[in-house]
Amino acid sequence: MKALVLEGKNQSSIYKNVEDVQVAEGEVIVQIKAAALNRRDYFITQGLYPSIKFPCILGSDGAGLYNNREIIINPNHNWGNNSTFQSKEYHILGLPKQGTLAERIAVNPDRLVDKPSHLTWEQAAALPLAGMTAYRALFTKGQIQAGDKVLITGIGGGVALFAMQFAIAAGAKVFVTSGSSEKIAKAIEMGAAGGVNYNDKNWNQQLVEQAGSFDIILDSAGGESFVPLPKLCNPGGRIVIYGGTLGKIPEISPQIIFWRQLSILGSTMATDSEFKDMIHFVNKNKIIPVVDSIYDIKDGNAAFEKLAQSNQFGKIVITIN
Q1: Per-residue model confidence (pLDDT) at position 321
Q2: HSE, side-chain direction, 13 A CA sphere, residue 286
Q3: What is the total count of domains within the chain?
Q4: Which of 81, 245, 254, 265 has the fewest CB atoms within 10 Å, i.e. the most exposed one?
Q5: Half-sphere exposure of 92 (CA within 13 A, CB side)
Q6: Is residue 271 part of a domain?
């Protein structure tokens, strides 16, 4: 079969023939129609991920056919019995197991979920990893309710956009931040109530003027930009962290946290139950994932170059014909 193979750190992937997929007991073969990239895939190409073994076939997101059934793949493996955190054995597709950037993949049939009928292959492939991450952060950890005011930082990434779409569908009033005024404008076109550019020195004050304060804040950056967030919360507010691209968070006043009864919560990925709930929510509300760009698998390295630039608005998708 053909696949996009990464053979070493800081190398371009190679589209080539590889040994056909090996099927373990209890597994089935899925013909991949489309796959999508995640920041995790780029980190692996840079060697910024534990336990990397080369050569490898990346890709955690995929949609395709199994016995003529249109499906998307749940990328979870071995979450464990405790819904509050994943087990030590937890992993997702694309390392250590073969990922979706190939013509075929072997998975357990309990990983297969019917593709929402209103989605194209490309839209469906964009959904799994980012969608489930946003769903857990917003619903399980953030405990969103209709009428809540929600702030989502760094709009444009896959998780942030799904979180915005989900929150709007849940009846919340959503505000966003970005380093791009164009991305803020696109978010407002999609239903966000407002947004600010975090490169402005007084961005947090601009948010206060636009929105007042927030019931839920979803953040994927950390770093110094996190410091104003507790002051932007209503009493009893929740700040959910699902990423840390800007690194360690410097000084935060504990008085703000305890006096306002705030909760700062960590979240990553989702349980199988949350994955199914997310798919049901997408079906019920006819959510359409935002696809930034589509590449043929033969041009997979161009897709990775696009991902490295971090200027996309939505998911980068790879089609496999």
Answers
A1: 84
A2: 1
A3: 2
A4: 81
A5: 24
A6: no
